[in-house]
Amino acid sequence: MANFTTLKGFLLMGFSAKPEIEIVCASVFLVLYLVALTGNILIITATSIDDSLHSPLYFFLKHLSFLDLCYISVTVPRYICNSFMHNGNISLWECILQCFAFTLCGSSEMAMLTVMSYDRYVAICLPLHYEIIMNVSTCIHGILAVWISGVISGVMHTAATFSIHFCGANIIHQFFCDVPQLLKFSCSNEYVGELGVIVFLSLVAFLCFICIGLSYMHIFSTVLQIPSAEGRAKAFSTCLPHLSVVMLFLSTGVFDFLKPQSDSPTALDFLLTGFYTVLPPALNPMIYSLRNKAMKTALRKVFKRRKV
Asked: Which is nearest to 284 in space by CA: 258, 261, 256, 252?
């Protein structure tokens, strides 16, 4: 990593060179960040203090909310501060740390959604064996697997990215240290190793997508065989929030990943990246709380306790 001694940092350009527009964008991001912060903290609180939510489903949901808090906090607070301070400078080590944390949280969230889909599969397709399969040991091992996979992905991605030599201007046309933007600074074909890591992580993400898809194919085939409409509605009510979160996270992430990286990013490019980094953590709490009766009941209890 010889470039560590020659490169001191980068300049994050944000959404616009005009301070007025940048302040407006930062204000919108601040609102979304506060929404994500409040919603995810409420879910963590509700699932922690309400005894009726001490089940594997809400155990994983609590960890998903914590992941969402970490995921959005990696990029958004720094961008808000940069915009209001009119200073987009970020040091090399801060950029490395941000890249590592962002990859860790994103990979962990993908793994968490996969584990949650398996939990729903066992609950609906194998209900008589649910307590045996999804015991405390299984839940803990699932969470450990999620975090370990995230750490491995973060280390691989960050090490491969910052092992290349950077040349030319160190201006990043994004509001955080985005890896595709960093690869543009490569002096030669040294980014081939990073592309190999990207291909490997993409295959892992594709396998997670296949596992989620297979789980829901079995889930829907089982739910449709339930004779009572009430039973089908109850089963769908526990699956649809998770499926909505999966579709939101995967669609925005895949679209952002597959779209071509232009030398002069447009407003649409920034908007898509904002959707991918900010919207899932902000909308996940609303999706789960609005579609889940048990969660709404638990949140009412939380607010009643605060009033008391």
From this structure: 252
Paired sense of beta strands 9-12 and 171-172, if any: parallel
Confidence band (pLDDT; 50, 70, 90) for 92? Answer: confident
What contacts 83, CB < 8 A, 6 or more positions away? 14, 22, 23, 25, 26
> Hey, what CATH topology would domain 2-307 get?
Rhopdopsin 7-helix transmembrane proteins (1.20.1070)
Query: Rounded to two decimals, what is the model's pTM?
Result: 0.86
Alpha-carbon distance of 279 to 104, in angstroms, equals 18
pLDDT tens column, 112-124: 999 999 998 998 8
Q: Degrees (nearest 5) of the Cα angle 181, 183, 184?
A: 70
The domain spans of the chain are 2-307
Question: How much is the pLDDT for 280?
Answer: 85
